[in-house]
Design brief:
The structure is a single chain. This protein is of the alpha+beta class. The chain is built from six helices and nine strands. The longest helix is centred in the last third of the chain and has 15 residues.
Amino acid sequence: MTGRPVVATLAAAGVAAGVLVGWPGLDTINGCGLPVNRYPSESAQDWVDNADVVIVGRATREWESDRQELASGAYRYQLERTVRLTRESVVFTSGRRAHPSPGPAVDYVAPGWKIPRSDAAARVDDLTGDAPRVVLGHTYVLALRWEEGRWVSLGEGAVVPFDGHTVGNGEWCGRVLGPEDFAEGERMARHDDHSLEKALLGQGADAVSQALDRAARKKSP
């Protein structure tokens, strides 16, 4: 079970949590989809241990980058989505693995779409559990890893809303939230939730950089 603040609210308060953040219909108990975790991604330590870079980026463009036909079920196709991020800053760079430096524009593989069998013209947004979808016009802090020639996130804890350069402010699960919504979730979250988002809620880029620096020093011999 995840400990991210809003998810904890939904699990603990049920329908009341949905009303709290203004979500009229939730697909699952956590309000999104299924969590996707390639690597540990919650804490600052997870980020410095597993990410190649941590950037602040604003989503400016998106496109379909792959398509998979599904043999059965309500959907005919699964579409991969790539989002172009205008890189505003690089918060952390790891020297552990070979990887390119992020350029002014970073192409990031994000949750995509599904096409229903009943309507070939429709696209249904994929939502990754406990994480932003990464929507155009919004800003994020992202812990990224270079894999097979592409930038991917570590997992559901590695993409943090950052509109106005404030942790917890912006898009989450396809909806726009403010720090006050996350703060209410944090109040009801598990005590062992050590996510970077929870620890730095309402703070800015300097706090993110300092947390990663501390984690990196802790790892050093």
